[in-house]
Protein backbone atom coordinates (compact mmCIF):
# COMPACT_ATOMS: atom_id res chain seq x y z
CA UNK A 1 0.00 0.00 0.00
CA UNK A 2 1.10 3.58 -0.64
CA UNK A 3 2.77 5.70 2.00
CA UNK A 4 1.32 8.99 0.78
CA UNK A 5 -1.48 9.90 -1.68
CA UNK A 6 -2.15 13.33 -3.17
CA UNK A 7 -5.79 14.13 -3.85
CA UNK A 8 -6.01 16.32 -6.96
CA UNK A 9 -9.46 17.63 -6.14
CA UNK A 10 -11.53 19.53 -3.61
CA UNK A 11 -14.78 19.41 -1.68
CA UNK A 12 -16.75 16.31 -0.82
CA UNK A 13 -14.76 13.85 -2.93
CA UNK A 14 -11.42 15.04 -1.53
CA UNK A 15 -12.78 14.53 1.99
CA UNK A 16 -14.07 11.06 1.03
CA UNK A 17 -10.65 9.96 -0.29
CA UNK A 18 -8.79 11.45 2.68
CA UNK A 19 -10.94 9.45 5.10
CA UNK A 20 -10.45 6.21 3.17
CA UNK A 21 -6.68 6.76 3.14
CA UNK A 22 -6.61 7.46 6.85
CA UNK A 23 -8.46 4.20 7.58
CA UNK A 24 -5.77 2.34 5.61
CA UNK A 25 -2.92 4.17 7.34
CA UNK A 26 -2.02 6.12 4.19
CA UNK A 27 -0.77 9.72 4.44
CA UNK A 28 -2.69 12.39 2.53
CA UNK A 29 -1.75 15.54 0.63
CA UNK A 30 -4.39 18.17 -0.18
CA UNK A 31 -4.19 20.96 -2.74
CA UNK A 32 -6.17 24.17 -2.57
CA UNK A 33 -7.03 27.34 -4.45
CA UNK A 34 -7.04 30.78 -2.87
CA UNK A 35 -10.75 30.40 -2.13
CA UNK A 36 -10.23 26.98 -0.52
CA UNK A 37 -7.37 27.99 1.76
CA UNK A 38 -9.26 26.86 4.86
CA UNK A 39 -11.62 24.31 3.30
CA UNK A 40 -12.58 21.09 5.08
CA UNK A 41 -10.43 18.88 2.85
CA UNK A 42 -7.44 21.08 3.65
CA UNK A 43 -8.12 20.89 7.37
CA UNK A 44 -8.41 17.09 7.30
CA UNK A 45 -5.32 16.26 5.20
CA UNK A 46 -1.90 15.55 6.67
CA UNK A 47 -0.30 18.11 4.35
CA UNK A 48 -1.66 20.84 2.07
CA UNK A 49 -0.14 22.85 -0.79
CA UNK A 50 -1.34 26.05 -2.46
CA UNK A 51 -2.27 25.96 -6.12
CA UNK A 52 -2.97 29.69 -6.34
CA UNK A 53 -5.77 31.21 -8.38
CA UNK A 54 -9.51 31.21 -7.82
CA UNK A 55 -11.21 29.74 -10.88
CA UNK A 56 -10.89 26.05 -11.67
CA UNK A 57 -8.75 26.85 -14.71
CA UNK A 58 -6.30 28.83 -12.59
CA UNK A 59 -6.13 26.33 -9.74
CA UNK A 60 -7.40 22.75 -9.89
CA UNK A 61 -6.83 22.53 -13.65
CA UNK A 62 -3.36 24.11 -13.49
CA UNK A 63 -1.37 21.11 -14.70
CA UNK A 64 2.08 22.63 -14.24
CA UNK A 65 1.50 23.63 -10.63
CA UNK A 66 -0.22 20.34 -9.80
CA UNK A 67 2.76 18.36 -11.09
CA UNK A 68 5.14 20.57 -9.13
CA UNK A 69 3.23 19.86 -5.92
CA UNK A 70 3.20 16.12 -6.58
CA UNK A 71 6.99 16.20 -6.81
CA UNK A 72 7.43 18.55 -3.84
CA UNK A 73 5.18 16.51 -1.58
CA UNK A 74 6.79 13.16 -2.33
CA UNK A 75 3.39 11.58 -2.99
CA UNK A 76 3.56 8.03 -4.33
CA UNK A 77 0.11 8.11 -5.92
CA UNK A 78 -2.52 10.61 -7.06
CA UNK A 79 -6.27 10.19 -6.69
CA UNK A 80 -8.10 12.52 -9.13
CA UNK A 81 -11.57 12.22 -7.60
CA UNK A 82 -14.22 13.11 -10.20
CA UNK A 83 -14.31 16.09 -12.52
CA UNK A 84 -11.17 18.14 -13.14
CA UNK A 85 -8.33 15.73 -14.15
CA UNK A 86 -10.17 12.47 -13.44
CA UNK A 87 -10.74 11.60 -17.11
CA UNK A 88 -7.72 13.38 -18.58
CA UNK A 89 -5.37 10.88 -20.23
CA UNK A 90 -2.63 13.47 -20.68
CA UNK A 91 -2.61 14.15 -16.95
CA UNK A 92 -2.47 10.43 -16.21
CA UNK A 93 0.52 10.11 -18.53
CA UNK A 94 2.24 13.04 -16.85
CA UNK A 95 1.73 11.31 -13.50
CA UNK A 96 3.22 8.10 -14.89
CA UNK A 97 6.20 10.05 -16.22
CA UNK A 98 6.94 11.23 -12.68
CA UNK A 99 7.07 7.63 -11.49
CA UNK A 100 3.88 8.21 -9.51
CA UNK A 101 0.80 5.96 -9.63
CA UNK A 102 -2.42 7.36 -11.08
CA UNK A 103 -5.32 5.89 -9.09
CA UNK A 104 -7.53 5.11 -12.03
CA UNK A 105 -7.45 3.27 -15.33
CA UNK A 106 -4.44 3.32 -17.69
CA UNK A 107 -4.21 6.34 -20.02
CA UNK A 108 -5.03 4.13 -22.99
CA UNK A 109 -8.40 3.20 -21.48
CA UNK A 110 -9.12 6.85 -20.68
CA UNK A 111 -8.27 7.72 -24.28
CA UNK A 112 -10.74 5.19 -25.61
CA UNK A 113 -13.55 5.84 -23.16
CA UNK A 114 -12.88 9.52 -22.51
CA UNK A 115 -13.47 10.20 -26.20
CA UNK A 116 -17.17 9.35 -26.39
CA UNK A 117 -16.87 8.64 -30.10
CA UNK A 118 -14.16 6.01 -29.81
CA UNK A 119 -16.05 4.71 -26.77
CA UNK A 120 -19.06 4.01 -28.97
CA UNK A 121 -16.84 2.17 -31.43
CA UNK A 122 -15.18 0.15 -28.65
CA UNK A 123 -18.57 -0.88 -27.25
CA UNK A 124 -19.82 -1.90 -30.67
CA UNK A 125 -16.74 -4.12 -31.12
CA UNK A 126 -17.83 -6.19 -28.12
CA UNK A 127 -21.44 -6.30 -29.26
CA UNK A 128 -22.85 -3.51 -27.08
CA UNK A 129 -24.94 -1.03 -29.07
CA UNK A 130 -25.71 2.63 -28.35
CA UNK A 131 -28.43 5.00 -29.48
CA UNK A 132 -28.23 6.21 -33.10
CA UNK A 133 -25.42 8.74 -33.45
CA UNK A 134 -22.27 9.66 -35.30
CA UNK A 135 -18.60 8.97 -34.72
CA UNK A 136 -17.54 12.32 -36.15
CA UNK A 137 -16.72 15.41 -34.12
CA UNK A 138 -18.92 18.37 -34.86
CA UNK A 139 -16.93 20.98 -36.76
CA UNK A 140 -19.76 22.64 -38.66
CA UNK A 141 -23.43 23.27 -37.79
CA UNK A 142 -24.30 21.76 -41.17
CA UNK A 143 -23.46 18.32 -39.73
CA UNK A 144 -26.15 18.71 -37.10
CA UNK A 145 -28.68 20.02 -39.60
CA UNK A 146 -28.00 17.01 -41.82
CA UNK A 147 -28.30 14.55 -38.91
CA UNK A 148 -31.60 16.15 -37.95
CA UNK A 149 -32.94 15.71 -41.46
CA UNK A 150 -32.00 12.03 -41.42
CA UNK A 151 -32.88 11.03 -37.85
CA UNK A 152 -35.22 13.78 -36.68
CA UNK A 153 -35.17 15.96 -33.57
CA UNK A 154 -34.45 16.26 -30.70
CA UNK A 155 -30.67 15.75 -30.91
CA UNK A 156 -28.23 15.61 -28.00
CA UNK A 157 -25.00 17.54 -28.50
CA UNK A 158 -22.46 16.26 -25.98
CA UNK A 159 -18.93 16.91 -24.79
CA UNK A 160 -16.63 14.30 -26.33
CA UNK A 161 -14.27 14.45 -23.33
CA UNK A 162 -16.61 14.70 -20.39
CA UNK A 163 -19.71 13.44 -18.67
CA UNK A 164 -22.20 14.14 -15.91
CA UNK A 165 -24.39 16.22 -18.19
CA UNK A 166 -21.78 18.98 -18.43
CA UNK A 167 -21.41 20.31 -21.94
CA UNK A 168 -24.61 18.59 -23.07
CA UNK A 169 -27.32 20.50 -24.90
CA UNK A 170 -30.55 19.21 -26.39
CA UNK A 171 -31.46 20.67 -29.79
CA UNK A 172 -35.22 20.80 -30.22
CA UNK A 173 -35.29 21.98 -33.83
CA UNK A 174 -33.25 23.27 -36.73
CA UNK A 175 -33.24 26.86 -35.47
CA UNK A 176 -31.54 25.99 -32.18
CA UNK A 177 -28.48 24.25 -33.63
CA UNK A 178 -25.91 27.08 -33.66
CA UNK A 179 -26.68 28.35 -30.15
CA UNK A 180 -26.58 24.80 -28.73
CA UNK A 181 -23.18 24.13 -30.29
CA UNK A 182 -21.69 27.32 -28.85
CA UNK A 183 -23.12 26.68 -25.39
CA UNK A 184 -22.01 23.03 -25.31
CA UNK A 185 -18.48 24.00 -26.32
CA UNK A 186 -18.25 26.73 -23.68
CA UNK A 187 -19.42 24.43 -20.89
CA UNK A 188 -17.17 21.57 -22.02
CA UNK A 189 -14.14 23.83 -22.13
CA UNK A 190 -14.90 25.34 -18.73
CA UNK A 191 -15.40 21.99 -17.02
CA UNK A 192 -13.12 19.57 -18.87
CA UNK A 193 -10.55 21.81 -20.53
CA UNK A 194 -11.55 20.58 -24.02
CA UNK A 195 -14.39 21.72 -26.25
CA UNK A 196 -14.80 18.85 -28.75
CA UNK A 197 -18.42 17.78 -29.18
CA UNK A 198 -20.43 15.08 -30.96
CA UNK A 199 -24.11 14.19 -31.37
CA UNK A 200 -26.62 11.40 -31.06
CA UNK A 201 -30.37 10.93 -31.15
CA UNK A 202 -32.04 12.13 -27.97
CA UNK A 203 -34.51 9.56 -26.62
CA UNK A 204 -37.84 11.05 -25.54
CA UNK A 205 -38.50 9.38 -22.16
CA UNK A 206 -35.67 7.03 -21.18
CA UNK A 207 -34.42 6.01 -17.79
CA UNK A 208 -30.75 6.42 -16.97
CA UNK A 209 -29.37 3.15 -15.61
CA UNK A 210 -25.70 2.48 -14.93
CA UNK A 211 -23.52 -0.40 -13.81
CA UNK A 212 -20.64 -0.06 -11.36
CA UNK A 213 -17.64 -2.14 -12.39
CA UNK A 214 -14.38 -2.86 -10.63
CA UNK A 215 -11.35 -4.31 -12.41
CA UNK A 216 -7.89 -5.17 -11.12
CA UNK A 217 -4.54 -5.48 -12.90
CA UNK A 218 -4.75 -9.28 -12.80
CA UNK A 219 -7.56 -9.59 -15.33
CA UNK A 220 -10.45 -9.80 -12.86
CA UNK A 221 -13.65 -7.85 -13.58
CA UNK A 222 -16.76 -7.68 -11.38
CA UNK A 223 -20.03 -5.79 -11.40
CA UNK A 224 -21.39 -4.23 -8.21
CA UNK A 225 -24.94 -3.99 -9.49
CA UNK A 226 -26.99 -1.24 -11.08
CA UNK A 227 -28.01 2.30 -10.20
CA UNK A 228 -30.94 4.34 -11.49
CA UNK A 229 -30.15 8.03 -12.02
CA UNK A 230 -33.27 9.16 -13.88
CA UNK A 231 -34.28 12.05 -11.59
CA UNK A 232 -32.35 14.81 -13.35
CA UNK A 233 -32.48 18.47 -14.25
CA UNK A 234 -30.35 19.95 -17.03
CA UNK A 235 -29.12 16.41 -17.71
CA UNK A 236 -27.45 16.37 -14.29
CA UNK A 237 -28.51 13.94 -11.60
CA UNK A 238 -30.48 14.96 -8.52
CA UNK A 239 -31.35 11.58 -6.97
CA UNK A 240 -29.79 8.16 -7.56
CA UNK A 241 -30.71 4.75 -6.22
CA UNK A 242 -29.42 1.18 -6.18
CA UNK A 243 -30.42 -1.25 -7.46
CA UNK A 244 -32.35 0.11 -10.46
CA UNK A 245 -36.02 -0.59 -9.64
CA UNK A 246 -38.82 -1.83 -11.85
CA UNK A 247 -36.67 -3.60 -14.45
CA UNK A 248 -36.80 -7.34 -15.09
CA UNK A 249 -33.89 -9.22 -13.46
CA UNK A 250 -32.79 -10.75 -16.77
CA UNK A 251 -32.45 -7.24 -18.28
CA UNK A 252 -30.39 -6.06 -15.31
CA UNK A 253 -28.20 -9.15 -15.67
CA UNK A 254 -27.76 -8.38 -19.38
CA UNK A 255 -26.73 -4.81 -18.55
CA UNK A 256 -24.19 -6.05 -16.03
CA UNK A 257 -22.80 -8.53 -18.54
CA UNK A 258 -22.57 -5.82 -21.21
CA UNK A 259 -20.75 -3.53 -18.77
CA UNK A 260 -18.18 -6.21 -18.00
CA UNK A 261 -17.71 -6.80 -21.74
CA UNK A 262 -17.07 -3.09 -22.28
CA UNK A 263 -14.55 -2.96 -19.40
CA UNK A 264 -12.75 -6.09 -20.57
CA UNK A 265 -12.73 -4.84 -24.16
CA UNK A 266 -10.70 -1.73 -23.30
CA UNK A 267 -8.39 -3.47 -20.76
CA UNK A 268 -9.92 -1.44 -17.97
CA UNK A 269 -8.60 -1.36 -14.42
CA UNK A 270 -9.83 0.31 -11.21
CA UNK A 271 -13.39 1.59 -10.61
CA UNK A 272 -15.55 2.65 -13.54
CA UNK A 273 -19.17 3.06 -14.53
CA UNK A 274 -20.89 1.96 -17.72
CA UNK A 275 -24.03 3.98 -18.41
CA UNK A 276 -27.11 2.93 -20.38
CA UNK A 277 -30.40 4.45 -21.46
CA UNK A 278 -33.38 2.16 -20.89
CA UNK A 279 -36.70 2.59 -22.68
CA UNK A 280 -39.56 0.20 -23.54
CA UNK A 281 -37.71 -2.92 -22.43
CA UNK A 282 -34.52 -2.18 -24.39
CA UNK A 283 -31.25 -0.66 -23.23
CA UNK A 284 -28.61 1.27 -25.17
CA UNK A 285 -24.99 1.93 -24.30
CA UNK A 286 -24.47 5.60 -23.43
CA UNK A 287 -20.88 6.01 -22.21
CA UNK A 288 -18.28 4.77 -19.77
CA UNK A 289 -17.08 7.06 -17.01
CA UNK A 290 -13.45 6.18 -16.29
CA UNK A 291 -13.53 7.35 -12.70
CA UNK A 292 -15.36 7.14 -9.42
CA UNK A 293 -18.95 8.42 -9.73
CA UNK A 294 -20.58 10.96 -7.45
CA UNK A 295 -23.26 8.36 -6.71
CA UNK A 296 -20.88 5.56 -5.70
CA UNK A 297 -22.14 5.49 -2.06
CA UNK A 298 -25.43 3.80 -3.01
CA UNK A 299 -23.50 0.88 -4.47
CA UNK A 300 -21.39 0.76 -1.31
CA UNK A 301 -24.45 0.59 0.94
CA UNK A 302 -26.14 -2.28 -0.92
CA UNK A 303 -22.96 -4.36 -1.43
CA UNK A 304 -20.95 -3.52 1.69
CA UNK A 305 -17.87 -2.81 -0.47
CA UNK A 306 -15.83 0.37 0.06
CA UNK A 307 -15.11 1.50 -3.49
CA UNK A 308 -12.42 4.03 -2.58
CA UNK A 309 -10.60 1.41 -0.53
CA UNK A 310 -10.77 -0.93 -3.52
CA UNK A 311 -9.45 1.82 -5.81
CA UNK A 312 -6.42 2.23 -3.57
CA UNK A 313 -5.81 -1.51 -3.30
CA UNK A 314 -6.13 -2.10 -7.06
CA UNK A 315 -3.82 0.82 -7.84
CA UNK A 316 -1.21 -0.58 -5.45
CA UNK A 317 -1.22 -3.86 -7.40
CA UNK A 318 -3.45 -6.02 -5.25
CA UNK A 319 -5.87 -8.49 -6.82
CA UNK A 320 -9.53 -8.24 -5.93
CA UNK A 321 -10.18 -10.29 -2.80
CA UNK A 322 -13.65 -11.33 -3.99
CA UNK A 323 -15.28 -12.74 -7.12
CA UNK A 324 -18.60 -12.04 -8.79
CA UNK A 325 -20.18 -14.89 -6.87
CA UNK A 326 -19.18 -13.24 -3.59
CA UNK A 327 -21.10 -10.04 -4.38
CA UNK A 328 -24.71 -9.76 -3.29
CA UNK A 329 -27.04 -6.76 -3.36
CA UNK A 330 -28.99 -6.33 -0.13
CA UNK A 331 -31.79 -3.84 0.42
CA UNK A 332 -32.14 -0.49 -1.34
CA UNK A 333 -30.13 2.73 -1.16
CA UNK A 334 -30.96 6.28 -2.24
CA UNK A 335 -28.61 9.23 -2.66
CA UNK A 336 -29.86 12.82 -2.75
CA UNK A 337 -27.50 15.48 -4.06
CA UNK A 338 -27.91 18.63 -2.01
CA UNK A 339 -27.00 21.42 -4.42
CA UNK A 340 -26.69 25.15 -3.80
CA UNK A 341 -29.63 26.00 -6.03
CA UNK A 342 -33.04 27.52 -5.51
CA UNK A 343 -35.56 25.17 -7.16
CA UNK A 344 -37.47 28.34 -8.14
CA UNK A 345 -40.48 26.35 -9.32
CA UNK A 346 -38.32 24.39 -11.75
CA UNK A 347 -35.78 27.02 -12.86
CA UNK A 348 -33.05 25.68 -10.49
CA UNK A 349 -31.06 28.88 -10.02
CA UNK A 350 -27.50 28.61 -8.64
CA UNK A 351 -27.16 30.08 -5.16
CA UNK A 352 -23.51 30.52 -4.12
CA UNK A 353 -22.68 32.12 -0.80
CA UNK A 354 -21.74 31.38 2.83
CA UNK A 355 -23.30 28.49 4.74
CA UNK A 356 -24.29 29.93 8.10
CA UNK A 357 -25.47 26.58 9.53
CA UNK A 358 -24.94 23.02 8.32
CA UNK A 359 -26.41 20.28 10.49
CA UNK A 360 -26.46 16.76 9.07
CA UNK A 361 -29.17 14.21 9.86
CA UNK A 362 -28.42 10.99 11.71
CA UNK A 363 -30.08 7.69 12.50
CA UNK A 364 -30.13 4.12 11.25
CA UNK A 365 -29.01 3.68 7.66
CA UNK A 366 -28.23 7.39 7.22
CA UNK A 367 -25.01 8.88 5.84
CA UNK A 368 -24.03 12.41 4.82
CA UNK A 369 -20.94 13.05 2.69
CA UNK A 370 -19.87 16.68 2.43
CA UNK A 371 -16.88 18.93 1.94
CA UNK A 372 -18.31 21.78 3.98
CA UNK A 373 -19.06 22.81 7.55
CA UNK A 374 -20.94 25.73 9.07
CA UNK A 375 -19.17 28.96 8.14
CA UNK A 376 -17.75 27.66 4.85
CA UNK A 377 -18.67 29.29 1.55
CA UNK A 378 -19.99 27.83 -1.72
CA UNK A 379 -18.12 29.63 -4.50
CA UNK A 380 -19.55 30.50 -7.90
CA UNK A 381 -16.31 29.22 -9.45
CA UNK A 382 -16.83 25.55 -8.55
CA UNK A 383 -19.45 22.83 -8.61
CA UNK A 384 -22.48 23.59 -6.46
CA UNK A 385 -22.65 20.27 -4.58
CA UNK A 386 -23.06 20.96 -0.86
CA UNK A 387 -23.24 17.32 0.13
CA UNK A 388 -24.81 13.91 -0.50
CA UNK A 389 -27.49 12.48 1.75
CA UNK A 390 -27.43 8.69 1.42
CA UNK A 391 -29.82 6.26 3.10
CA UNK A 392 -30.31 2.48 3.16
CA UNK A 393 -33.50 0.51 3.75
CA UNK A 394 -34.42 -3.16 3.59
CA UNK A 395 -36.62 -2.32 0.59
CA UNK A 396 -37.33 0.68 -1.67
CA UNK A 397 -40.40 2.04 0.17
CA UNK A 398 -38.44 1.99 3.44
CA UNK A 399 -35.50 3.76 1.81
CA UNK A 400 -37.82 6.46 0.41
CA UNK A 401 -39.43 7.07 3.80
CA UNK A 402 -36.01 7.20 5.47
CA UNK A 403 -34.75 9.65 2.84
CA UNK A 404 -37.70 11.99 3.43
CA UNK A 405 -37.20 11.80 7.19
CA UNK A 406 -33.51 12.57 6.85
CA UNK A 407 -34.20 15.46 4.47
CA UNK A 408 -36.55 16.95 7.04
CA UNK A 409 -33.74 16.83 9.62
CA UNK A 410 -31.06 18.29 7.35
CA UNK A 411 -30.36 21.97 8.00
CA UNK A 412 -28.49 24.13 5.47
CA UNK A 413 -28.91 27.83 6.20
CA UNK A 414 -27.49 30.86 4.42
CA UNK A 415 -27.94 29.60 0.87
CA UNK A 416 -30.79 28.26 -1.20
CA UNK A 417 -30.69 24.50 -1.76
CA UNK A 418 -32.50 21.85 -3.77
CA UNK A 419 -33.97 20.24 -0.62
CA UNK A 420 -37.59 21.30 -1.38
CA UNK A 421 -37.34 19.86 -4.90
CA UNK A 422 -35.72 16.66 -3.57
CA UNK A 423 -38.63 16.21 -1.19
CA UNK A 424 -41.13 16.82 -3.99
CA UNK A 425 -39.45 14.12 -6.08
CA UNK A 426 -39.31 11.53 -3.32
CA UNK A 427 -42.95 12.01 -2.30
CA UNK A 428 -44.33 12.08 -5.85
CA UNK A 429 -46.56 9.34 -7.18
CA UNK A 430 -44.40 8.94 -10.30
CA UNK A 431 -41.16 8.35 -8.39
CA UNK A 432 -42.86 5.89 -6.07
CA UNK A 433 -44.31 3.98 -9.01
CA UNK A 434 -41.07 4.19 -11.04
CA UNK A 435 -42.82 5.82 -14.00
CA UNK A 436 -40.41 8.76 -14.15
CA UNK A 437 -37.76 9.36 -16.82
CA UNK A 438 -34.75 11.62 -17.34
CA UNK A 439 -37.10 14.35 -18.63
CA UNK A 440 -39.70 14.04 -15.90
CA UNK A 441 -38.40 16.60 -13.38
CA UNK A 442 -38.36 19.33 -16.02
CA UNK A 443 -41.42 18.31 -18.02
CA UNK A 444 -43.69 16.29 -15.74
CA UNK A 445 -43.11 17.07 -12.07
CA UNK A 446 -45.29 19.86 -10.67
CA UNK A 447 -42.91 22.20 -8.85
CA UNK A 448 -45.40 25.05 -8.51
CA UNK A 449 -44.60 26.89 -5.30
CA UNK A 450 -41.48 24.80 -4.69
CA UNK A 451 -38.79 27.31 -3.72
CA UNK A 452 -36.00 27.42 -1.16
CA UNK A 453 -36.77 28.99 2.20
CA UNK A 454 -33.47 30.86 1.88
CA UNK A 455 -34.73 32.44 -1.34
CA UNK A 456 -37.75 33.75 0.54
CA UNK A 457 -35.68 35.10 3.40
CA UNK A 458 -34.49 38.29 1.73
CA UNK A 459 -35.54 41.61 3.18
CA UNK A 460 -38.61 43.28 1.71
CA UNK A 461 -39.05 46.96 0.92
CA UNK A 462 -39.90 47.70 4.56
CA UNK A 463 -36.70 46.14 5.88
CA UNK A 464 -38.38 42.97 7.15
CA UNK A 465 -37.19 39.42 6.57
CA UNK A 466 -39.07 36.13 6.40
CA UNK A 467 -38.08 33.70 9.15
CA UNK A 468 -39.28 30.46 10.67
CA UNK A 469 -39.87 30.99 14.38
CA UNK A 470 -41.12 28.72 17.18
CA UNK A 471 -44.19 29.81 19.15
CA UNK A 472 -45.98 28.15 22.04
CA UNK A 473 -49.76 28.02 22.45
CA UNK A 474 -51.22 26.38 25.57
CA UNK A 475 -47.95 24.54 26.12
CA UNK A 476 -47.73 23.19 22.57
CA UNK A 477 -44.94 24.29 20.23
CA UNK A 478 -45.59 25.39 16.63
CA UNK A 479 -43.15 26.48 13.91
CA UNK A 480 -44.48 29.41 11.91
CA UNK A 481 -43.12 31.49 9.07
CA UNK A 482 -43.53 35.24 9.52
CA UNK A 483 -42.10 38.62 8.55
CA UNK A 484 -39.97 40.19 11.29
CA UNK A 485 -37.76 43.32 11.44
CA UNK A 486 -34.40 42.69 9.81
CA UNK A 487 -31.57 41.92 12.21
CA UNK A 488 -29.26 44.03 10.05
CA UNK A 489 -31.30 47.13 10.76
CA UNK A 490 -30.43 48.33 7.30
CA UNK A 491 -33.92 49.46 6.40
CA UNK A 492 -35.39 48.85 2.96
CA UNK A 493 -33.29 46.41 0.97
CA UNK A 494 -33.12 45.29 -2.61
CA UNK A 495 -35.23 42.18 -3.03
CA UNK A 496 -33.90 39.14 -4.81
CA UNK A 497 -34.16 39.84 -8.50
CA UNK A 498 -36.08 37.56 -10.81
CA UNK A 499 -36.00 37.50 -14.57
CA UNK A 500 -38.62 35.74 -16.63
CA UNK A 501 -36.30 32.72 -16.77
CA UNK A 502 -36.75 32.24 -13.03
CA UNK A 503 -40.51 32.16 -13.15
CA UNK A 504 -40.91 35.68 -11.80
CA UNK A 505 -44.15 37.63 -11.86
CA UNK A 506 -45.21 40.54 -14.08
CA UNK A 507 -42.28 42.17 -15.81
CA UNK A 508 -41.05 45.73 -15.46
CA UNK A 509 -38.56 45.90 -18.30
CA UNK A 510 -35.70 46.23 -15.81
CA UNK A 511 -33.95 42.87 -16.20
CA UNK A 512 -31.75 41.80 -13.30
CA UNK A 513 -29.93 38.54 -12.59
CA UNK A 514 -31.06 36.26 -9.77
CA UNK A 515 -27.56 35.05 -8.86
CA UNK A 516 -23.91 36.05 -9.11
CA UNK A 517 -21.91 34.79 -12.06
CA UNK A 518 -20.07 35.69 -15.26
CA UNK A 519 -21.57 36.94 -18.51
CA UNK A 520 -20.51 34.55 -21.29
CA UNK A 521 -22.77 35.70 -24.12
CA UNK A 522 -24.98 38.63 -25.08
CA UNK A 523 -27.78 37.89 -27.55
CA UNK A 524 -29.10 41.42 -28.19
CA UNK A 525 -28.06 44.99 -28.87
CA UNK A 526 -29.57 48.35 -27.99
CA UNK A 527 -32.45 49.00 -30.36
CA UNK A 528 -33.37 45.34 -30.87
CA UNK A 529 -37.01 44.35 -30.55
CA UNK A 530 -37.63 41.41 -28.22
CA UNK A 531 -40.56 39.33 -27.03
CA UNK A 532 -41.13 38.36 -23.41
CA UNK A 533 -39.15 35.17 -22.80
CA UNK A 534 -36.47 35.88 -25.41
CA UNK A 535 -32.93 35.24 -24.08
CA UNK A 536 -30.96 38.45 -23.56
CA UNK A 537 -27.70 37.25 -22.00
CA UNK A 538 -26.15 33.99 -20.82
CA UNK A 539 -24.88 33.93 -17.24
CA UNK A 540 -22.46 31.21 -16.14
CA UNK A 541 -22.72 30.36 -12.47
CA UNK A 542 -21.22 27.31 -10.79
CA UNK A 543 -20.28 25.74 -14.14
CA UNK A 544 -23.84 26.00 -15.48
CA UNK A 545 -25.14 28.35 -18.14
CA UNK A 546 -28.39 30.21 -17.43
CA UNK A 547 -30.42 32.25 -19.88
CA UNK A 548 -31.54 35.62 -18.55
CA UNK A 549 -34.69 36.40 -20.48
CA UNK A 550 -36.74 39.45 -21.39
CA UNK A 551 -39.58 39.93 -18.90
CA UNK A 552 -41.68 42.07 -21.25
CA UNK A 553 -41.97 42.63 -24.98
CA UNK A 554 -40.43 45.82 -26.30
CA UNK A 555 -37.23 47.49 -27.43
CA UNK A 556 -33.82 47.16 -25.74
CA UNK A 557 -32.82 50.61 -24.43
CA UNK A 558 -29.81 49.64 -22.29
CA UNK A 559 -27.24 46.86 -22.10
CA UNK A 560 -25.22 47.26 -18.92
CA UNK A 561 -22.81 44.33 -19.19
CA UNK A 562 -20.11 42.95 -21.46
CA UNK A 563 -18.91 39.42 -22.07
CA UNK A 564 -16.56 38.43 -19.26
CA UNK A 565 -18.13 40.71 -16.64
CA UNK A 566 -18.60 39.24 -13.16
CA UNK A 567 -21.89 40.42 -11.67
CA UNK A 568 -23.81 39.95 -8.45
CA UNK A 569 -27.35 38.92 -7.60
CA UNK A 570 -29.75 41.74 -8.38
CA UNK A 571 -27.48 43.53 -10.83
CA UNK A 572 -29.36 45.03 -13.78
CA UNK A 573 -28.14 43.69 -17.11
CA UNK A 574 -30.61 45.32 -19.49
CA UNK A 575 -33.61 47.60 -19.76
CA UNK A 576 -36.58 47.21 -22.10
CA UNK A 577 -39.11 49.84 -23.07
CA UNK A 578 -42.47 48.28 -23.77
Low-confidence stretches: 489-505
Strand order of the largest sheet: 13-12-9-10-11-14-21-19
C-alpha Rg, in Å? 24 Å
Proportion in β-strands: 25-35%
| Terminal residue distance | 69 Å
What is the CATH class of the largest domain? Answer: Alpha Beta
Query: How much is the average pLDDT?
Result: 91
Which CATH architecture of the largest domain would you pick?
A: 2-Layer Sandwich
CATH-wise, what's the superfamily of the largest domain? ATP-grasp fold, B domain
Counting helices, strands and paired strands, the structural category is alpha+beta
Any chance you could write out the topology, listing elements then pairs?
Elements: E1 4-7, H1 11-23, E2 27-32, H2 40-44, E3 47-50, H3 63-73, E4 77-79, H4 89-97, E5 101-102, H5 107-114, H6 116-125, H7 141-151, E6 155-159, E7 169-171, H8 177-192, E8 197-201, E9 207-215, E10 221-233, E11 236-242, H9 249-265, E12 270-279, E13 282-289, H10 296-303, H11 307-315, E14 332-339, E15 341-342, E16 349-350, E17 353-354, E18 357-359, E19 366-370, E20 377-378, E21 385-393, H12 396-409, E22 411-413, H13 419-426, H14 429-433, H15 440-443, H16 453-456, E23 464-473, E24 476-485, E25 510-512, E26 517-522, E27 529-530, E28 535-541, E29 544-549, E30 554-559, E31 566-567, E32 572-577
Parallel strand pairs: 1-2, 1-4, 2-3, 4-5
Antiparallel strand pairs: 6-7, 6-8, 9-10, 9-12, 10-11, 11-14, 12-13, 14-21, 15-16, 17-20, 18-22, 19-21, 23-24, 25-32, 26-28, 26-31, 27-30, 28-29, 30-32
Amino acid sequence: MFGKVLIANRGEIAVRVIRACRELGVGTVAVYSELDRNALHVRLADEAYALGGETAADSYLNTERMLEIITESGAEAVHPGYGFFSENADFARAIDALGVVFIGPPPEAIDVMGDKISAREAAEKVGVSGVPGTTDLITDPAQVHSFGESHGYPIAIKAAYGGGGRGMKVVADDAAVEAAIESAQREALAYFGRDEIYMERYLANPRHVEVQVLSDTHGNHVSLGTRDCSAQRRHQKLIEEAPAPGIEPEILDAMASAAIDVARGCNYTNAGTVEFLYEDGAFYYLEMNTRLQVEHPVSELVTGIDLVEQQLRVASGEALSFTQDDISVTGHAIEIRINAEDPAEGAFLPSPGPITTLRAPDGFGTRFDTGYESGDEISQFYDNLVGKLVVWGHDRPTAIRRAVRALDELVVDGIATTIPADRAILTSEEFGAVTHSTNWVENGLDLTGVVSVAALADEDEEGRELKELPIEVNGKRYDVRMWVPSASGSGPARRRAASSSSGGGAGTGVVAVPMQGTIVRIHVEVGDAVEAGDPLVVLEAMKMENNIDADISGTITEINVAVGDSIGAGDIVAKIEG
